[in-house]
Amino acid sequence: MFDTHVNLHAEAFEDDLEEVLTRAREAGIRRFLAICDRFDSYQKVRAIADANSDIWNTVGVHPHHAKDFPDLKVDDLLHAARDPRTVAIGETGLDFHYGYSAEAEQVANFRRHIEAARRSGLPLVVHTREADDLTARILEEEYQNGPFGILLHCYTGGQELADRGLALGAYFSVSGILSFKNARDVRAVISTIPLNRVILETDCPYLAPVPYRGRRNEPAYLPHVADALARLHGKTREDITSICEDNALTLFNKVGI
Q1: Could you give the 3-state DSSP secondary structure of residue 206?
Q2: pTM over the 0.90 mark
Q3: Bridge partners of residue 200, in order along the sequence
Q4: Which residues are involved in binding a divalent metal cation 1 (predicted)?
C-alpha cells in the first residue's frame, strides 16, 4: 500500500516517528509521500525521505501559510523539484474556511505552484476547502496554458468540482473522512469518481479513520481507509489497495518501484 499524504515532520511524531513507521510497515504500507506544507520545512521533510528508502517527499506551501512566503519564486520550487526524492509540487491550493492567509495571497501562491508543476512535469497536490468554484476556475485557466498533473487531495468538495477536475484528468485521494458516519455527502461524491482516478491517504496525524477516530492518526491505519472505499464500491480491501496503488504509481511516476 502507498500512503500518499503523510505529515511526518509534524510535532505529533517528534517522539516516536521510528515506531510509527515500523507499525505502518507491519500493516503493509510500502511507500509513503511526506508532504511539505511550508517552504522553510522542506529540508526537514526531505531529511525524513533521505533517511528512509520507502519515503518520498513534496515541496510546497499550504494555503494557510501563503502569507508567510510572499517572495517565493517558481524557481525556488523548481530547484527542489530536481531532487530525486521530490516527486510532487504542493501541497498548495485555496482554503477559505479559516482565512489564515488572504484570498489574493492564496491565489498568487497557488498559481506559482501550478507553474512549477507545469514546468517540472511533477503532479500538483491541491488542498481546497470552501473554495470549489475558484479552485476549478484557476485550474481550468492554467490548464489552457499547458497541461499538468492534478491531485485533489483528501477530497471533500462538491460534485461540480469533481466533474470539472475529472475533465482535466485529475486524481482524487480519499482519507479517513470516508469512514465517518456523518460523511454521507462525501461518500456520495466519491462514489461517482471512477476507481482508476482514486488513491488512498491518511493525512496523518489528522483525520484518523473509524475505529480510531479522535486519536492521533498514523499510516498504519491506511487499511481502514481502504476498507471504507471497498464498502462504497462493493469490493474487497485487496482489490482496492491494488487499484489505488497502481493509480498512485501512475500519478507519482517519479517514485521508485
Answers
A1: coil
A2: yes
A3: 174
A4: 5, 91, 203
For CA atoms 145, 128, 68, 80, the dihedral sign is negative
Q: How far is CA 69 from the centre of its chain?
A: 20
Task: Please tell me the distance from the alpha carbon of residue 63 to that of residue 106, in angstroms, as a whole number.
Answer: 5
Q: CB of 76 within 8 A of CB of 43?
A: no
Question: Which residues, listed in sequence order, are joined to residue 51 by a DSSP beta bridge?
Answer: none
Local structure of 28: helix, strand or coil: coil
Tens-place pLDDT, residues 213-239: 999 999 999 999 999 999 999 999 999
Fold of 2-251: TIM Barrel (3.20.20)
Residue 133, class by beta-carbon neighbours within 10 Å (0-12 exposed, 13-18 middle, 19+ buried)?
exposed
Q: Would you say 153 is a known binding-site residue?
A: yes
Tell me which DSSP letter residue 204 carries. Answer: B
Which strands form 86-95's sheet, in the order they lie side by side? 2-6, 31-34, 55-59, 86-95, 124-129, 150-152, 171-174, 198-200
pLDDT in tens, 8-27: 999 999 999 999 999 999 99
Whole-angstrom distance, CA of residue 220 vs CA of residue 51: 19
127 marked as binding residue: yes
Is 91 labelled a binding residue? yes
